[in-house]
Write a structure and sequence with these properties.
Blueprint: H1 3-21, H2 28-45, E1 49-56, E2 59-70, E3 75-76, E4 83-84, H3 89-102, H4 131-135, H5 158-164, H6 182-196, H7 200-212, H8 223-226, E5 233-235, E6 241-243, H9 252-255, E7 258-259, H10 261-272, E8 276-277, E9 280-281, H11 285-291, E10 304-305, E11 310-314, E12 317-326, E13 329-336, E14 341-347, H12 353-371, H13 387-393, E15 395-399, E16 402-409, E17 412-416, E18 421-427, E19 430-434, E20 439-446, E21 449-452, E22 455-460, H14 470-473, E23 477-481, E24 484-491, E25 494-499, E26 503-506, E27 508-509, E28 514-516, E29 527-532, E30 538-543, E31 546-549, H15 569-578, E32 593-595, E33 604-605, E34 627-629, H16 630-643, E35 648-654, H17 659-668, E36 691-698, H18 727-741, E37 745-748, E38 751-757
Parallel strand pairs: 33-35
Antiparallel strand pairs: 1-2, 1-14, 2-3, 4-7, 5-6, 8-9, 10-11, 11-12, 12-13, 13-14, 15-16, 15-22, 16-17, 17-18, 18-19, 19-20, 20-21, 21-22, 23-24, 24-25, 25-26, 27-28, 28-29, 29-30, 30-31, 32-34, 35-36, 36-38, 37-38
């Protein structure tokens, strides 16, 4: 050996000894700051729990859990709990195939039909698809398979899932455009299953997860793992949260894996060790580097899709990552292989992968700062928008086909953007989108407009929208499953499909029943095809090859919603009349009920409970009267006067309600519908003379203003934030809300027609029938 070379070898050996003997990097500053941020963020955004692990070279230097693994039972989250890691699963599927490629058992640039000849989708481009194209989402395969897709609860086999792709067509010419595809990665896993003659999940566990030391991970729904899952939640724009479905996907290789943050940390350590584990090597270093190389991009481009991993420049360094979102679990796996630092973040609320990604990237910034012994950067927390500013910026803004609606409701500023509805908050003097599912976009008010990100939109005068075209009315409605609803609705004169709960995409009409998804979003390049019945109503929406069946929601054609009372009406009446409300302590104002008829001659009345035209089909009031406490009555009169400029008047359905009627409603209503009736043990604001049920009518024609649902309809369409139906219906609902809320009322969270007056708690619950009320 030459002397110079020998010296270099000695120096390198000395460095390696010094590094080995060096004390472990202390990340306590980082963990403390992250803990404060995560705890604050969970509270602000209503996320039940979050889990995090920091990896530095060959160690998980910190792992922690925050919040509750079961919010209702207040069970504390633990870092050892098991999660569905969603699309992070794809990394393991792709690595297992690359292992076969290393051994010369397959060629990722050969036609995939070499290994799965039965895969025969329609391919108008005549270009064979390869595993390289598929793993980089450049094959043009549809996002979801027709069978075994994200919404499919039937748990078909992987083979059935892949065969269903023969019903589809390749969307784009291979290698020309990125199109994320769960179906494609399912096919990658099926190649593995066929070639190895072993079920995919079993093979991955034996030949990849076990060698990695990931003993608490599996693609199989093992009982011992499922028992350690936290309770995850699904949320909706209209304010609901509920437990997530737990079925297994037919596209298992794309999304079915279970793991812990600790096991994912072990996986990251192997990546930092260039594929080497304590028991052997899972991949060659050059194979990993190829997986981390952006594919099908211009020479020198440093960002793009690698083989499985997404690659980008972050803080001047290479970042390889993958996020995942599955019912109730949102995962971010982010690693900087050249600096050997990485983060895993999981939270337990649906569609919150943007939040997990934001926390992960902040953690990486902190770790980099710590390594440099520099000051830790702030997170950039936000506060609610100042009410004066919120009211100033509220309105509608437009640039070309892009329309954005800013609204201020109950102390929160919202933005309905191109596809999503988000919360807007304030960071110092800047308005910024900051929600659990979307963040970062800035809003800068300017003269007669708004700078939204890089776009300048002009404020437009808000006018009453036109009715949706007749040809669309039969299509508007809900389709799909309880666990995943497709809303077909009209917005800004365009038919929209709100799919996977949160993404409202404008559709391009191709023909009466065929529409195209836009050139962005989850389903770009694909279509939605409607099947109608003989009356022209949609009964099936086949969206991106997935069949969503029409859902029966509420009532149609102005019909009154009705229930089947749990007991006979007279029995309910006798029981309620014998009972009394609980005695309330405290000091209360004297009741001063006013008959609304005396206040404004344009206010109309349709007192349903004085007739049988109500949800119980029974008479409850001896006469059709509407009484409110005097301040509330005056506020209704002011709202009525304000609405006249829009050509609308108020129609009152109910106001003061004796307590015994509230008890009858409660005792008659099935448990699953009791959100729409008050609990008599607590009383109703109606019982205090401080609540009004109210709607709009056209002053010129006398016709009722179209609303999203009928009055007293016990369905999700009654919710004040229900996103469906037409622009005109939602505009009328918002106009009514604005009129009442600016006079001191607040809308009830489950009913767009029910408004409670401020200060209702200062009046007693009353149980006086109408004939016992003094006339004022």
């Amino acid at each position: 050996m030459k002397p110079a070379r020998a010296a270099v070898v000695r120096i390198l050996a000395l460095i390696s000894i010094l590094v080995a003997d060096a004390p472990a990097q202390d990340f306590s500053r980082v963990s403390r700051q992250l803990s404060d941020v995560i705890e604050s963020e969970l509270k602000q955004k209503g996320i039940p729990a979050a889990y995090i692990a920091l990896v530095n070279d060959q160690s998980v230097v910190w792992s922690a859990a925050f919040g509750y693994s079961d919010l209702d039972r207040k069970l504390t989250a633990s870092p050892t709990q098991v999660h569905r890691i969603a699309s992070v699963s794809k990394l393991f599927t792709d690595i297992a195939v690359m292992q076969l490629a290393e051994r010369g058992l397959l060629d990722i640039d050969a036609p995939v039909t070499t290994y799965v000849p039965e895969f025969q989708p329609r391919n108008p481009f005549g270009i064979p698809l390869t595993l390289r194209q598929i793993m980089t989402h450049r094959a043009g395969i549809v996002r979801e398979p027709p069978v075994g897709h994200y919404m499919d609860p039937t748990e078909p086999s992987l083979a059935q899932t892949i065969l269903s792709l023969n019903q589809t067509e390749i969307v784009y010419k291979p290698e020309t455009r990125f199109k994320y595809s769960n179906a494609g990665i399912a096919l990658v896993g099926y190649v593995l299953e066929k070639m190895q003659g072993q079920p995919f999940g079993e093979y991955i566990e034996r030949y990849l997860l076990k060698p990695l030391g990931m003993n608490e991970s599996s693609f199989l729904p093992k009982k011992e793992l499922l028992e350690r899952k936290p309770r995850a939640l699904l949320w909706t724009y209209d304010g609901r949260t509920f437990d997530v479905p737990t079925f297994q996907f037919g596209m298992a290789p794309a999304a079915n894996m279970y793991s812990t943050i600790g096991d994912l940390g072990t996986f990251m350590i192997a990546l930092f060790n260039k594929g080497e584990t304590g028991t052997g090597r899972i991949l060659k270093e050059e194979t990993l580097e190829e997986m981390w190389r952006p594919q099908f991009v211009p020479e020198g481009e440093k960002s793009g899709a690698g083989l499985g991993f997404f690659v980008e420049e972050f803080e001047g360094e290479r970042l390889v990552s993958h996020s995942g979102d599955v019912y109730g679990f949102a995962t971010e796996f982010a690693a900087m292989p050249d600096r050997k630092v990485g983060v895993i973040v999981v939270n337990t609320m649906n569609a919150c992968n943007d939040w997990s990604s934001r926390i992960a990237r902040y953690a990486l910034r902190l770790m980099q700062a710590q390594k440099k012994n520099a000051a830790l950067p702030p997170f950039g927390s936000t506060t609610p928008v100042d009410p004066r500013l919120a009211k100033l910026v509220s309105g509608t803004y437009r640039k070309g086909s892009l329309t954005v609606e800013i609204s201020y409701k109950a102390g929160t500023l919202f933005m309905q953007g191109r596809t999503m509805k988000s919360v807007v908050r304030q960071r110092e003097n800047t308005l910024v989108v900051d929600d659990k599912h979307n963040s970062g976009t800035t809003l800068i008010p300017v003269a007669n407009g708004l700078v939204l990100g890089a776009d300048t939109l002009l404020r437009v005068t808000e006018t009453r929208p036109q009715e949706a075209p007749d040809r669309w009315k039969g299509l508007i409605g809900e389709y799909g499953w309880d666990h995943n609803v497709l809303y077909i609705h009209e917005r800004n004169g365009i038919l929209h499909a709100q799919i996977e709960w949160y993404f409202s995409y404008p559709l391009r009409e191709i023909s009466n029943n065929v529409f195209a998804f836009p050139e962005f979003g989850l389903y770009h390049g694909e279509k939605i095809v409607f099947t109608r019945d003989s009356s022209g109503n949609g009964v099936l929406a086949t969206a991106a090859n997935i069949g969503f069946v029409r859902r029966a929601v509420g009532t149609a054609g102005g019909q009154t919603f009705r229930i089947n009372p749990q007991h006979p009406i007279e029995q309910l009446r006798q029981s309620a009349m014998k009972a009394s409300p609980s005695v309330e302590g405290g000091v209360f104002k004297e009741s001063d009920l006013v008959d609304l008829r005396a206040l404004d001659s344009t206010i109309r009345f349709d007192i349903r409970y004085a007739t049988t035209n109500n949800f119980m089909n029974a008479v409850f009031y001896s006469e059709p009267r509407a009484y409110l406490q005097r301040p509330a009555a005056r506020a209704v009169a002011l709202a009525s006067a304000w609405l006249k400029q829009f050509g609308y008047g108020l129609i009152v359905y109910d106001a003061y309600r004796p307590w015994y009627v509230t008890k009858m409603f409660w005792d008659a209503t099935p448990d699953h519908q009791r959100d729409f009736v008050a609990d008599p043990s607590k009383g109703s604001r109606h019982n205090r003379g401080c609540a009004v049920d109210i709607g709009l009518y056209d002053l010129r024609t006398g016709a009722l203003a179209p609303m999203v649902s009928g009055y007293d309809e016990f369905s999700v369409r009654a919710y004040p934030e229900y996103p469906g139906e037409s622009s005109l219906q939602r505009w009328n609902r918002e106009l009514l809300r604005t009129a009442l809320e600016q006079e001191g009322f607040a809308v009830y969270e489950y009913e767009w027609w029910h408004f409670d007056f401020q200060g209702w708690e200062h009046y007693r619950i009353m149980n006086v029938a109408f004939d016992g009320i003094p006339v004022n």
